[in-house]
Amino acid sequence: MIRLPEEVLFFARIAAFGLIVGAVYWFLAYEPAGTVMLLGFGVASAVASAILWLRSREAEPTGDGWPIGRDPGRIPAPAFAPLSIGVGAGIVALGLALGPLLVVIGLAIAITGARSWLAAAMREADPSVVGDEPNDADIGRT
After folding, report:
1. Beta carbons within 8 Å of 7's beta carbon, 6+ residues apart
2. Which end of the chain has fewer CB atoms within 10 angstroms, the N or the C?
3. Could you tell me which residues are beta bridge partners of residue 133?
C-alpha cells in the first residue's frame, strides 16, 4: 500500500469537500456566483494536492519526520503582526465608508503591525542569531 504524506491527503480532503459542497449548493440554490467560488476552491485545493503529490514522489524519504522528506530550515516564530495588519486593513475599509478618522486609525494599526513583522523577519534572518538564543551582538535590538 502506498503511504501518501499527510499534506497531500489534507488538500485532497479539502478538494473533495469543496467539489461536493459546490455541486450540492448548485442543485439547492441554482446560484452561479457561490457555486463557481465553491467549485473553484475545490479545484484549487485539488491542484495543490497534485503538486504536493508530485513533489513527494521526487523527494527522497528521510524518515526524520519532516513533511515531504525535507528539513524546512528555520521556522518563523509565532507573532500577532499578520493579525494586526489584517485588523488595520479592515478598519481602513470601514473608514472608506464611515469616515476618514477610521482610515487614519486603521493605517496606524496596519503600519505598526507591518513594522513589527518586518523587524521580526529581519531578526530571524540575522546570521548572528544562532538557534533560539541571541548572541551578544543581538543585545539591544528589539
Report:
1. 52, 56, 67, 68
2. N
3. 130
